[in-house]
Amino acid sequence: MKPATSVPLTYLLVDGHSVIHAWPELKREHRVASRRHLARTELLKRLRNLQDMSGMQVVVVFDGARQGTNEEREPQGLQIIFADSGTTADTIIERLVAKYIPERPMRVVSADGMVRETILSLGAEWFSPEMLRSLCDGAETSMRARLA
Asked: What does the CA dihedral 19, 107, 113, 35 come to, rounded to 10 degrees?
């Protein structure tokens, strides 16, 4: 009998603003400065549900306006990275894929065609924001079924 091999954890890297601008309900909230936080909060809620139901580690990267890259980790939850004002979420995502693709499966969600080409050439999988919505919808349906 063969010994069990552990499968490396799949990472899902999400360009947060790319998704916010692609999902109409989030884009609507984001247009109003006093409501921008609601768009981010709703996206993070949906991504937590996806992570809980899929077993993937979700890393969300947002373009930032602050000095220095800032990272938050929720206990047993999402990893959230805010790029500094001189770096884009795209750059951080591409660097993470280049660094970690030899060690673990990587999936990237972005509407940016150049990001798609770069991460595919590095060996990662690419999902559109619409494909992410479908994954989130499926995870939420599964979660409701489990609770029923």
From this structure: 10
